[in-house]
Amino acid sequence: MSTTAALGVDPDAAAPRAQAENSRGRVVVASLIGTSIEFYDFYAYATAAVLVFPALFFPNAQDPTTQLLSSFAVFGVAFVARPLGSILFGHFGDRVGRKTTLVASLLTMGVATVLIGLIPPAATPGWTVLAPAALVLCRFTQGLGLGGEWSGAALLATENAPAGKRAVWGTFPQLGAPIGFILANTVFIALSTFSSPEAFASWGWRVPFLASSVLVIIGLWVRLKLIETPAFRKVQEADAVVAVPLAAVVRTSWTKLISGTFIMLATYVLFYLMTTFTLTFGTASTRPETGPAGLGYERVEFLWMLIIGVVFFGMTTLASGPLAERFGRRKHLIVVTIAIAAFGALFVPLFAGGAVGVQTLLIVGFCLMGLTFGPMAAVLPELFAANVRYTGSAIAYNVSSILGAAVAPFIAVWLWSKGGGSPVLVGVYLSVMAVITLVALALEKETQHIDYNGHLAD
């Protein structure tokens, strides 16, 4: 990527000025609230996709496995929409600004989530086809909003960060993942505990989706108080806003789009295996009438095990920022990705180790998740110049979501079925994806010391 220094000033001079306008506390809350809502919404859907959506929206499927795969297929629709959202919101993020675009993406995502909670089941007269179609439409709209959400939150944090603190500040939006998970699943646990199975299937599952409106309102209130980031103000002052960011980023940084996509691949696969697949496998019957066998845990029991693992996810996300600053993004991620590849080989012995083994698997997996996910809010944006950064980082992040997350639950269930109820092939799948990410990291250069605010794409 060819770049030129903008304005001939100290590239970090804008950071202190930005802090006077956007305080650290405001940046933390504004970047964290959006990704918390993002992951709350997605965890709520992922949990419902396992627990109630197969029978609720796909009652005419020939068997429970087909119902589950149909539910996961709709789960993947949002990931297909995310690259389109990254182009749409990336365009405005690089032309209009980070703040306005973040407000629009949050509204899009939030409205779609609330509407999911209002869709009648397929058994409702006249809704046999309309119910699953409405679910698909809402998931697609969610995906559009999500396509612009993460990148904007990452830029909000890193473009306001002081010198030498981008990876640390970049962990602020990443913390939204464990927070959103805990919020969503705590709601599901409460509903499962204090309502009957019939009440949960009838109306209880709707509560997490409808309740997200409260988080959206808080997020909008915080974001409307923001000041534009210093990096984008420099783009405006240098009269370097590009007319078509997509064309510009493809022309100047197409290799970075490819490397960024595959750098994120193992993170996405690990993320959705540790959440969606483990819940599916953990709560499936040990002696099913149809489909592969699982571990037979009660739903609430396994959700608590997941929440314990996610606490470690949050702690290692925070730890990853200082580690990425000390050792460099590339070295840090190479070591963690090697560990992820090795972790795939532990699926069978840990899953077979009883409650202790399963909990150990969840803790180790989520620790690796935090260590790889935490630095990504700095790593992906650092690949791109300031005037195409929103579009570039959003496309890399969201194209990777198709390759790593949209298909991960579907592939995992299929491999689990082919393995005769054993997760051995699922572990192999994770290890192979980690090797692909290692190749991408080996081919990319360290980005820690780039002139983050002062370079523009030619």
Automatic annotation (TrEMBL):
Stretches assigned to the Major facilitator superfamily (MFS) profile domain: 27-448
InterPro entries: MFS_dom, MFS_sugar_transport-like, MFS_trans_sf, Sugar_transporter_CS
Subcellular location: Cell membrane
CDD domains in the record: MFS_ShiA_like
Membrane topology: Multi-pass membrane protein
Statement: the UniProt record of this protein carries the keyword Hydrolase: no
A GO MF term: transmembrane transporter activity
Listed transmembrane segments: 42-62, 68-89, 101-120, 126-146, 167-191, 203-224, 261-282, 302-321, 333-355, 361-383, 395-416, 422-443
PROSITE patterns listed in its UniProt record: MFS, SUGAR_TRANSPORT_1
Keywords: Cell membrane, Membrane, Transmembrane, Transmembrane helix, Transport
GO cellular component: plasma membrane
Main location as per UniProt: membrane
The protein's name in its UniProt record: Metabolite-proton symporter
Species classification: Bacteria, Bacillati, Actinomycetota, Actinomycetes, Micrococcales
